[in-house]
Queue: 2 jobs
Job 1
Amino acid sequence: MTRNEDSLKALTTILRAASSVERVVKEDMVSYGLNATEFTVMEYLYNRGKQPIQMIGKKILLASSSITYVIDRLEEKGLVQRVADVKDRRVTFAELTDEGQQKMMEIFPQHAETIEKLFKELSDSDLNKLRALLKEVGYKATKLIK
Amino acid sequence: MTRNEDSLKALTTILRAASSVERVVKEDMVSYGLNATEFTVMEYLYNRGKQPIQMIGKKILLASSSITYVIDRLEEKGLVQRVADVKDRRVTFAELTDEGQQKMMEIFPQHAETIEKLFKELSDSDLNKLRALLKEVGYKATKLIK
DNA sequence: AAAGTATAAGGTAAGTTTGAAATAAACGTT
DNA sequence: AACGTTTATTTCAAACTTACCTTATACTTT
């Protein structure tokens, strides 16, 4: 097989694997009453604490108006709140409410366990290899984004 | 780092890499006047020939109602046509029109070249390793989908 | 300090995706 | 052959995402 064909196959594999993985992860997230985007935002805030709204969008690769929408939904659910920045009045932070914090402490371990299942078959070294290779491809990809 | 944490990191890496890769690929597709879903369907038909509509949905992991929508768009563009199955009258095939065939023959090589760039940094063996690992994870994932 | 430029958040409209329900046809069992 | 079940496609409404635009604020240069 030519290198070119290999690349195409690799692309197909990466996209399909990602799609299947996303589906599993999504189903898990939905079982907690959150859609994938909402969960991703919650997880980000859970790990990083209070963050500027625009920063969240950048990190999880979502358009600015989409973030507004998601944060709106999460506020309605009482899981996230907006807090004004006193230094830069253009900025609004999003942070978990106590209820949101509570919820993440509850579901995060379950979520981690679901993910653990996905990678159970791989040896430690394979898992690390996979991460390294994907990191490289991902890095290359970000460089190619216009 | 615990194995559990490694799994989470691996998930993050796979999803981020996929997201970046998707973005690059998507930009390429859009440059041909097709969105990602449309291109994926076109590519599938280009490689496999005439296919039942429902089969396409299964293969590219799209809800049946979404396929209907995409095929509608592609028909409007004159790239795809619906053909009734004479054996099973529930089934409708989708296939490339001559124009669609023409278009794919034109853009497919360019598309392949874009993708080639993504994986340029990886050695042949790394590329194969990546595919093998992702295949395993992807397979595991499909088993976990409810 | 004024003027121009850059950045943050949100509004709006259009396009995409989904789930649920509807319709039609085929299949399986009695 | 009739009856219930499954499968394929479509329709519809609702949810989500994006691109483009607006407003407000901060930064930079003169």
Job 2
Amino acid sequence: MSLPHVLLGLLHEIPRSGYDLARAMREELDPAWNAGFSQIYPALAGLRRRGWVALRVLGPLRGPRRHLYRLTAAGRRELRRWLGEIPPPPRHNDEGLARLAFLDALPIPERRKALLAADAALSTEIARLRALSPAGGFRSLARRAAIEEREALRRFLRAGGAAAPPSETGPRREARKKR
Amino acid sequence: MSLPHVLLGLLHEIPRSGYDLARAMREELDPAWNAGFSQIYPALAGLRRRGWVALRVLGPLRGPRRHLYRLTAAGRRELRRWLGEIPPPPRHNDEGLARLAFLDALPIPERRKALLAADAALSTEIARLRALSPAGGFRSLARRAAIEEREALRRFLRAGGAAAPPSETGPRREARKKR
DNA sequence: CTCGGCTATATCTGCATTGATATAGTTGTC
DNA sequence: GACAACTATATCAATGCAGATATAGCCGAG
């Protein structure tokens, strides 16, 4: 999808190896993006094919050989082009929201339990994000944005879950199964 | 992933065909889940194999033949089991957040432009979600939760984007609580 | 010296997801 | 009567992504 551009972004400041890139994603980009080696290595090959990165192989002076990738001028241009694009609306499936949508199917006491469990899980995840080592500049801005999102969801669950278990008030969907 | 359980959820109240399920996802579940026919039809076959749904074929009385699926008792049990599970923390890659994280790479005036564009895109998406026909019960709760998340992100971008463009020379606060 | 853990490369399998295509009847419009 | 839009089934290819595995050298602890 946009993994290639994420890699360009991570290579913007300093050259890195595939391994470095995986670590940087885990440590600097955590909630925003993640990818494993099986994606990163082929993606790097693609970037190279397009001339967006250049490869320098370091002989095994100390440890295993390293493949260091650095941005080319074309790569830098492409990164800036991508950043200037109109961002497409995110459309990923969210299991948590889907569960929430089907809570009608549970008897009332279990609904409560499920809502509490969802709240606890969110809380744990927020704590995890807060505990991550602070990444610099816009990286930390992105991370705080992610925390903000999750906290808004949690606030909503706590308020809405207690106040509005809307059963059959709304327009009951006509099943339109006549035939 | 959890598409099978989403289908069980949609079949909870009334039997539906594959086509109905696709429409229901678009209309009732919109930001929470989406899937095309190429996922739905094989998934339905899987549900049938597991005994969670039963199939009734309606002859072409009017129009093409319909394959109506309904939940079995085992399917109902499985749906409730899934809803009671501990929800896994969501971990999807978010292109919008990733872009935000790399805004360092743009010269300042273009950063502004990019932030404004992101805000506008968010605004459009929120308007789209608000305009969707209201789904009943917990469906609408899930949709409002999704809107809440997006609005929190937007608030953050408006505030943080204007007030705190943390440069790479910013105060590197490294001495958190050392323990 | 050995073992476990870390750095580092890379591949394979399988499932999830998207988008395109094929087939075919029904309904409504001009 | 032609044509478009909708209902309805289903498959295919390509890509995204997660998890496991293979190889191999380095380093510190015991």
